[in-house]
């Protein structure tokens, strides 16, 4: 009871209240106390009337006093109720709510305590049965009203029951009437029973509130779960449909409806699969066969409880991947992926990974795979095969001079010409740039030769591209497996070596690999490595060979010829190391050095003696570089530009490159002269002589060698000399070794000559000034 009383005074422990209710719940509870002033008014009137009636009946002043006290308490309570109801309490804090709670119960408790006391006085101080009955009955009635009204606050009910009934019970027990005493004791039972009832009512109330809360929470959780599930289903990229065990639709998402074009009416739960299938067939989304197959898979999945996938090609051109998986209670889940784009992308990636974009031929990656396969087959079945390495001659020039568009078109056309020359099972691939490779399965030496020759012939005719006519030939290197190599890498290397030989043999031809080539290739590789070192260490030298004026026998020019003394191999001729330098890219630096060194050396010679420097066509690939190098060499050496001649070969001119022509003009503008070297060995187009501004033409030594015996040589020398005279050019005949050759070429009209007869190439140190300009 003490605890309950304490609860009354402090309005209940906030902890307890908080355990039972949260703040909104507490506010609701308190507002319910103030909710019906109607119940306070009759209770208040009854409360005032009880002591008043006792006063009327007994005439005792104490009752009038108690009447006034009750009236004041009732008035104060009414004021509290009115004040409470006038305000808004939605945002009341816990402390505010507790204050209202406390005020209400303070009023109620004072009310019940005063009435309880009034009843006690009526029973003990008067003998008036009317006062007794009025007091006891109104006390019991008011107490009962409290139980019913305040079941939500059992502790307060207990306190009020006690304050109402305990004075009454004591009053009854003190009376000398056994019935009164019986009722007095009974009052205690009444209090206890009512406390118990209130507690149980309270528990039920709590349980009910909990259950309501829980079911509300459950409902809201379910609702939000449904919303989430709905959103998740509909935002899935894949279509999803679930059928129950009797193949009636349980659920399907928006993508599923869209993918199959199913109307909303057929997407309702309970729709049989057969109805949907009928619709799909009628609308020609899928064929009856596809429906049958899908149903078969469905049945299989239901039976085996194992998921299965099928591809469905719709009539609208889409590719659907349908996965059917077992679901709960014998149902099935149907997941549909629109794989149209994915498959197309996969195919594109596969195509890009394996095939060359430009020509559509297999690419290097695919070729490597197929080569590995060919070796596997060779191991398993012993089937031999050939590898052909095809490289286009002169393609680089086409690309550089006519642009990449034309270059690309040449490659496309080449691919189609080569394709036309091979058999069905042969694999033609583009290896990169202008290199193609071909695997010829089970081909004999003669078949390989035939096919390779067919390809060379196919390339023989001109490429007609818009207004441009382009000639591109092919060189082919061939290696056979297992004869030439046992691994893909070796076979490729050997075919490449054979290709190199075919190129060296004058291009536009085919060459089979043989082991001697491998040694040579190895040699070349070693030479390249050593040449790089020689360049770095500046161990190259220039030798000089005189070119003489046949009339005066005086040296007019000296030709700079590069020399390389290899530490172990001895003197290596430029005919060997220059092509290697050209292929390895070393030629640019070597060429720069030769120009600068030759100018520097020539500056020490008599003014009338010039110097000739050989220039590789590859040096023209960097037009600005060669112009700058020459300028720099002339300035640094202080050599008059008219003393410098640059020797170029026809191969530079066939490219017909505008940039080359511009470089020639720029250099000529400096005062530098040009000589056409080795005339008669290449295309020997006389047209070049008139087209390009040469100061000099050098007839190749092969003509002077047989000038006596060969009428053709004679005729050519004579014709060139005549043309040169008309174009104001000098003619130098190379390779004069004998006096009779000298006389012969002089008679044919040559002005100048070069050869061992006049002097061999010698190091600078051997050219002494006292030798003067005259030769023997
Ligand atoms: P080339 O420019 O035609 O040089 C003439 C070649 O004929 C030289 O060979 C020379 O030694 C050789 N020769 C001269 N007179 C006679 C003779 O009476 N009889 C015989 N049998 N040969 C004679 P070399 O020095 O071996 O040079 C070969 C080629 O190497 C040169 O031919 C030139 O094309 C190239 N070359 C040499 N030095 C350089 C260079 O610095 N740069 C470039 N790019 N090429 C060079
Ligand atoms: Mg030369
Ligand atoms: Mg020459």
TrEMBL record:
Start and end residues of each GGDEF domain: 383-515
UniProt-listed SMART domains: EAL, GGDEF
Keyword Ribonucleoprotein part of the UniProt annotation: no
Keywords for the protein's UniProt record, in alphabetical order: Membrane, Transmembrane, Transmembrane helix
Sample GO molecular function, one term: catalytic activity
Transmembrane regions: 28-49, 61-84, 104-123, 155-173, 179-197
Domain (EAL) ranges: 524-775
NCBIfam families reported for this sequence: GGDEF
Descriptive protein name: EAL domain-containing protein
Organism name: Bosea caraganae
